[in-house]
Specification:
mainly alpha
Length: 367
């Protein structure tokens, strides 16, 4: 029997294996830091201090993590249905258009807590709409979802540039961006949350979208493990043949799963568009759609694991920025190497330790 099919306890699958992968990634990263003449332990301390050492750093860490939670959930929902959605980046772009249009329309008339539900819906609808075409092509024409979604990333980015340059730009301004939203179109900061722990948020754009992300994580858990649709999606993901034999409609399940996945990716835009910059800009996604793939894989496609993995990548983003400032030899490219190693071991090499762990478990575990 292949070791990939041997059942292991959850504490090994969801705890020990990700921790081992992470430790190996950091050991190799430490070796690279040592090669360029810096102390790996000092670099690790600076990274953690920059991300978690003060209120502002924690605020930036959770700000980045918020975007990764949305995109990680987006990837996870599709994976449970046997689909690999690489289009979260483009779906988030279009989601930004949806929430920006809502904010531009309502910020003159209503407060933020009235605008927010409509912005969530607008972002989800636009993100889902951008996922619908690849979903339909997969379900009805057999086009591979990986190819179509990754191509739609480029189409979405080009479409956003066109709209910002020719349609939504403020007359007389050079920057390709919308006008700044009024207070009714801005998500407030969560400075009160950090104040409960005696910390100050400072300039960090940590905002209400973090709470929305946590709510979405809970709803995804309900969907996947507590609903009939979630059972159908998981069945399709495990065995399309068994799903067909059980009478689960393939095309409907694929399209619904991708619509939910695209909607979650679209909601990611709430964080940078309405929470941070208060306007729609070019490149606001910043690669969060692709990071979501690693977050989902590292979190074992479970909402709780995705939250922790997103916070880890938030630490790498914020702590890496501080580290490159305090240690000039460690450039931004070096931080990308560290992030890449984490992605490599969390994703491509996630089962590297599994054969040895299976043998050890079978040898030492009680019958």
């Amino acid at each position: 029997m292949s070791t990939a099919s041997v059942p292991l306890p959850n504490w090994i699958n969801y705890g020990l294996i990700p921790i081992l992968n992470l430790l190996v990634a950091f050991l190799i990263s430490g070796f690279v830091v040592w090669l360029i003449g810096e102390n790996p332990l000092d670099a690790l301390v600076l990274l953690l201090q920059g991300a978690l050492g003060r209120g502002e750093g924690i605020g930036f860490t959770l700000f980045y993590a918020t975007s990764f939670i949305f995109t990680g959930l987006s990837v996870a929902v599709a994976i449970h249905a046997g689909l690999f959605n690489i289009g979260s980046e483009g779906q988030a772009y279009l989601g930004g258009l949806g929430c920006a249009l809502v904010a531009l329309a309502l910020d003159h008339y209503v407060p933020w807590y009235v605008t927010m539900p409509f912005a969530v819906i607008g972002a989800a609808i636009f993100g889902a709409a951008w996922a619908f075409i690849p979903a339909w092509l997969q379900a009805k024409r057999g086009s591979h979802i990986v190819i179509t979604t990754i191509m739609f990333n480029y189409i979405g980015a080009a479409l956003m540039v066109y709209l910002l340059v020719h349609v939504l730009i403020v007359p007389g301004k050079m920057a390709p961006e919308t006008r700044t939203f009024l207070e009714g179109g801005q998500l407030p900061k969560l400075d009160w949350l950090l104040a409960l722990f005696g910390m100050r948020l400072g300039a960090a754009p940590f905002n209400v979208s973090f709470l929305i992300a946590l709510v979405m994580a809970f709803l995804v858990w309900l969907l996947i493990w507590r609903t009939k649709l979630g059972f159908e999606m998981r069945t399709l993901g495990v065995s399309p043949t068994a799903a067909s034999y059980a009478g689960i409609p393939y095309a409907r399940t694929v399209i619904i799963a991708m619509l939910i996945s695209g909607g979650l990716a679209g909601m990611m835009s709430l964080n940078p568009v309405m929470g941070a910059s208060a306007r729609l800009q070019v490149e606001f996604v910043g690669g969060a759609g692709f990071v979501g793939i690693a977050v989902s894989l590292m979190g074992r496609n479970h909402p709780v694991g995705i939250i922790f993995a997103a916070i880890l990548f938030g630490i790498l983003y914020q702590g890496g920025a501080e580290l490159s400032f305090d240690m000039p030899n460690i450039t931004r490219e070096m931080i990308l190497v560290i992030q890449g190693l984490v992605i490599l071991f969390a994703g491509a090499l996630e089962y590297m330790f599994r054969p040895a762990l299976v043998r050890a478990y079978q040898q030492f575990a009680p019958a």
